[in-house]
Write a structure and sequence with these properties.
The chain is mainly α. Helix content is 70%, strand content 0%. The termini are far apart. The model has no long low-confidence stretch (mean pLDDT 79).
Length: 101
């Protein structure tokens, strides 16, 4: 269980850092707030161990594509690919120049 929590925390922090980096400077605080709000399920402004653990369990369930209770290398690689595609989409939106009048 301890490994699951550490793995989940690492994945959460990685996703958060990638999301923040992909956002324009003005949007980074908004992205961090959205991530916080997702974790703070009771909306008390704090993330309890229970909320954190529940968030990690949801993340684990999402990564465990075949629902066998384990995340293997193929599932990890698949999740990394999805994250890269998601981040690329965010970055493409940032890099797309505004249309000229």
């Amino acid at each position: 269980m301890r490994r699951i929590v550490w793995f989940g925390m690492t994945m959460f922090l990685l996703a958060l850092s990638m999301a923040v980096q992909a956002q324009p400077e003005d949007d980074a605080p908004k992205m961090m707030q959205r991530m916080w709000d997702m974790a703070d399920s009771d909306r008390d402004g704090r993330i309890s161990k229970t909320e954190f653990t529940a968030m990690q369990e949801r993340r684990f369930a999402m990564l465990d594509a075949n629902k066998d209770g384990y995340i293997d290398r193929a599932e990890r690689d698949q999740a990394q690919h999805r994250m890269r595609q998601h981040m690329k989409g965010l970055m493409d939106g940032v890099r797309t120049p505004a249309s000229e009048p």
